[in-house]
Amino acid sequence: MNNKMVFGQYVEGNSWIHRLDASTKIIVLFFMMISLFIVSNLYFLLGILCFIWLIVLTTKLPLNQFLKSFRAMATLLCFTLIFQILFNTTGEIIHIGKFTFSFTFDLTILSLIIGIITLLLYIILGKWIHKYRFITFIILVLLIFYLQTIIHITPIIVTYNISFHMNAFYSASRVFLRILSLLSLSALLTFTTKPIDLNNGIETIFHPLKFLRKYVSIFGMMMSIALRFIPTLFNESQKILKAQASRGADFQEGSIKQKIGQIISLLIPMFVISYKRAEDLANAMEARGYIPGDERTKLHITKFRITDICSYIFLVLFFTFVILSKVLWGL
Amino acid sequence: MSFIELQDVYFRYTKDDYALNGINLSINRGEHVCILGHNGSGKSTLAKILVGLIEKKKGHIYIDGIELDEKTIDNIRQKIGIVFQNPDNQFVGVTVEDDIAFGLENRKVSRDEMIKLINQFSSKVSMQDFLNRNPEELSGGEKQRVAIAGVLAMNPEVIIFDEATSMLDPKGVKEVMEVIENIKKEKTIISITHNLSEAKHCDRIIVMNQGKIVLDGTPEEVFKNTNVLIESRLDILDSMKLIDKVKNSTLNINKKQEVEDALWQYAYHK
């Protein structure tokens, strides 16, 4: 069993961002994120992104790991971009010299049949092409579009055109920059802050709200216990997986129906164990005098440093600048 | 009245199956008492009732002269601490120091005082170098020692060990037993166990079976009643089995009595 299991994305480090108080980081990031949606000027957005990346560089985080965290969102990003470009048809059509980005396609019976056959071939042959599946798919799609532009044999089913407009380009870049900045900001937070510190930070932020305090302290306790038990339950699930595998359960192969059955054979013991643990834990906590929602003192207090104050000053200046630029110049 | 006094205490989980069936018990301050019983004899139920996790159905419980009920429970929890069986399930904090601090935070102890107490009691269980470790990086024995430190920091007068060593490896058991041996002089200790070799370290053994107390006395007195121990479904020590064999053997053993006495001495040897 791996003893030094780390959950979450936290990377050990000692940069000034690491040493900032978690509540400061959360507040600054929150307002930075808001300002990203206030700003609509493309160059301004680009400037903010560059600034965020500059900060990332100062933390000496492993950059490839940092970039890897975007991978999950890459597909979503691509889809938004494609939709923005295809469906935004305002503004002038993009042109480079004489060449305009506007295409007319004739969907004929012949090209339709060819298209369907290629698709079928792709599905059948797809089993053998593992590595370049996505690229093959793109090439095939482009090929079909190309066929549609050159085949003009009747009967034509429908004629349609696709054109790329300037506004589509602007809004797509805006969305791209915003999403990338958001991802960088949240990655910056999770890479430099331990989950438990994040939890403490959230508690600190909500502490002044008296009417919420009871719920915040209960919620904070829940979160810290959840964080505490994730590794324990993960180890437990590994044990059960091995135990079930030794009895013949196969979690890797089999049809979906079989897989569901095998996952149930993992989930049910996990549920039973978690409830038993929860009961024991509740007893232990009660015996040590925990009263939900009651006032408690804290071992970890927020350590306010000069960098925290500087961050807040920067935030105030930055946010006023964003608001002013919006109001005065409409950026 | 003695320090802990139970008068006719009854408890049942289901309708007619009494887990505690009329317990009368008094424990003096500073005693080290072992409650011995097999699974389901009611020994853990007794522990939970004493710390107020479950409520008795009938009878009276007095701790330090205060009757245990809903109103006094917070007061009584300051006098009594408990260490449970599973080292993982009672580790509340994310790190060792957080876990020791948990009870203190509940008690609203100030931060400076807390740090002082954490340092004091973590070194008492020799865990002072592990303060920033996660529970995942600790062995069962270490986690259990942290749990003891957490209880000790709250300065209770009685500590209950509810099968605190039963899930540990031999090394862990040894470590925890050493800690218990260490704190024995200052606190009243109630150890709950099904293990005779553990129980012989106590000043007094109480044997429970089917929710009743069947034997009560020093280890010497209790171990002599081998039959009662077997009836209570306890695993008697190997030396005690041997004594039985010697007693009933038809072999010609010279000085049977001397052999028996020597074996008894071995059985009580700590």
Written description of the protein model:
The complex is a heterodimer of chains A (331) and B (270). With 331 residues, chain A is mainly α. Among the domains of chain A are: 102-163, no CATH class; 223-300, no CATH class. Helices cover 69% and strands 6% of the residues of chain A. Chain A contains twelve helices and four strands. Chain A has helices spanning 16-19, 22-38, 42-58, 63-68, 71-87, 109-125, 133-150, 166-192, 195-206, 210-246, 256-287, 306-329; strands spanning 95-96, 99-100, 102-108, 156-163. In chain A, the strands form two sheets. Chain A has a two-stranded antiparallel sheet. In chain A, strands 3-4 form a two-stranded antiparallel sheet. In chain A, strand 1 and strand 2 form a beta hairpin. The longest helix of chain A has 37 residues, at 210-246. Chain A is flat. Chain B has 270 residues and is an alpha/beta fold. Chain B has two domains: 4-233, Rossmann fold (3-Layer(aba) Sandwich); 237-270, no CATH class. Helix content of chain B is 39%, strand content 22%. Chain B has helices at 43-50, 73-77, 96-106, 111-124, 140-153, 170-183, 196-199, 219-224, 226-231, 238-248, 256-268; strands at residues 4-12, 18-27, 32-36, 58-63, 66-67, 80-83, 158-162, 188-193, 204-209, 212-217. In chain B, the strands form two sheets. A six-stranded mixed β-sheet of chain B has the order 6-7-8-3-9-10, with helices on both faces. In chain B, strands 2-1-4-5 form a four-stranded antiparallel β-sheet, with helices on one face. Chain B is globular and about 70 Å long. Chain B starts with a strand and ends with a helix. In chain B, 46% of the residues are buried. At the A-B interface, helix 10 and helix 11 of A face helix 3 and helix 4 of B.
